[in-house]
Amino acid sequence: MEEMDEPKTFRSLGVCEQLAEACLSLGWANPTRIQMESLPHALEGKDIIGIAQTGSGKTGAFALPILQALLENPQPFFACVLSPTRELAIQIAEQFEALGSGIGVKCAVLVGNVDKVQQAISLAKRPHIVVGTPGRLLDHLSNTKNFSLRTLKYLVLDEADKLLNLEFEKAIDEILKNIPRERKTFLFSATMTNKVKKLQRACLRSPVKVEASSKYSTVETLKQQFRLVPAKYKDCYLVYILTQMAGSMTMIFTRTCDSTRLLALLLRNLGMRAIPISSQLSQAKRLGALNKFKAGECDILVCTGLMSRGLDIPQVDLVINYDIPENSKDYIHRVGRTARAGRTGLAVSLVSQYEVEWYLLIEKLIGKKLPEYPAEEAEVMQLVESVTDARRMAHMTMKDNPSHRKRRGRDGDEDADEQFVSLKKGNKSKPKRR
Ligand code: AMP
């Protein structure tokens, strides 16, 4: 916890001139805390377990030492970074490319729901860095001719605790069998589970554990509030907050894929620019929705916990937990989507009578009681009629266009766009966001 007397620079931590300049060109004037803690060890060639809150600059903390080692010893298939979600994998590759643009770094991204042939072509170009989700990487290791990671020097597991969940365990074990034991390994995660310790025993060599924050903290620039709401008026409170916070770039978290779609339709029926994203959508649709949000075409992204890990959209200034996560650690990941890289942000949790228990677990985990979101109940109740209408119309649309889960080419994003256009004509509900 002691403050350093001299502000550290990337150079003073051992980062070479070329990469320090790359950092500067990205606007990284000084290293973040996790970078300060981990870079000297990682540059020395140590294995690292990094516990860093989301938005702390952890991608830089593992990308810089890899790029520096690559500069010293250029070779294809130098490093492999695994991530639990496709979006995070793409984001990591983008940071590698941005930091490595001056040194001609080539990356391949191997994620599911995307054309395998294109990916095989990118592997044939013999990239330096492969970033991917475990299933698809394993698929290529098994089926793509001339692709192997036998000369790999670095392995990174980002969101390591998630990657060690049962759903990924088998794929990870298989991948570990196909890469050299003589390598450097970095594990990064905002939350740490015993399973990480298990992997630590299996694969790491005298790792250095670096921690940029206490285990389950959230960043200081994040303001967190909650509001107890009757379940039947939750939509009204949601709409009220969105109206109060007009102009904010907002992520709303719900429990199920269907409710992302329903809520996005409901909000659209009220004239708000909302877009749903969930695992029901094809990868192209997911990226499309994300890009619309990033570009500001839509300012409300309604998503499931799928989008809660690692995603970096610095402009997000409001996170609303429409549903309270049962697993309190998910809360940390969700609210970490705002107040990134030193910016401020607000997270509001809407707690119904059925969710109080889960909410109390969250307060216990973060070690503090949160203040209440100040909502004028009378004003909220004025929204009941229009919100009820909007919900009814959203339900009708969902009924007319039943779940697209198994259908190709008509994903919710597209449906929602079409539905928005047709519903706008009959729209009589009025709470205005901007
Ligand atoms: P991450 O935790 O890796 O998702 O990074 C969060 C955000 O912080 C990204 O937008 C990075 O570009 C940014 N970032 C990373 N390192 C620094 C730094 N040293 N100074 C300023 N911003 C940074």
From TrEMBL:
GO terms for molecular function: ATP binding; hydrolase activity; RNA binding; RNA helicase activity. Residues 39-210 form the Helicase ATP-binding domain. SUPFAM superfamilies: P-loop containing nucleoside triphosphate hydrolases. A motif (Q motif) lies at residues 8-36. Residues 8-36 form the DEAD-box RNA helicase Q domain. Residues 395-434 are annotated as: Disordered. It comes from the Eukaryota. GO terms for cellular component: cytosol; nucleus. Keywords: ATP-binding, Helicase, Hydrolase, Nucleotide-binding, Nucleus, RNA-binding. Its main location: nucleus. InterPro entries: DDX47/Rrp3_DEADc (IPR044765), DEAD/DEAH_box_helicase_dom (IPR011545), DEAD_box_RNA_helicase (IPR050079), Helicase_ATP-bd (IPR014001), Helicase_C-like (IPR001650), P-loop_NTPase (IPR027417), RNA-helicase_DEAD-box_CS (IPR000629), RNA_helicase_DEAD_Q_motif (IPR014014). It is found in: Nucleus. Residues 237-381 form the Helicase C-terminal domain. Residues 425-434 have a biased composition (Basic residues). Gene3D superfamilies: P-loop containing nucleotide triphosphate hydrolases. The keyword RNA-binding applies. Belongs to the DEAD box helicase family. DDX47/RRP3 subfamily. This is Uncharacterized protein.
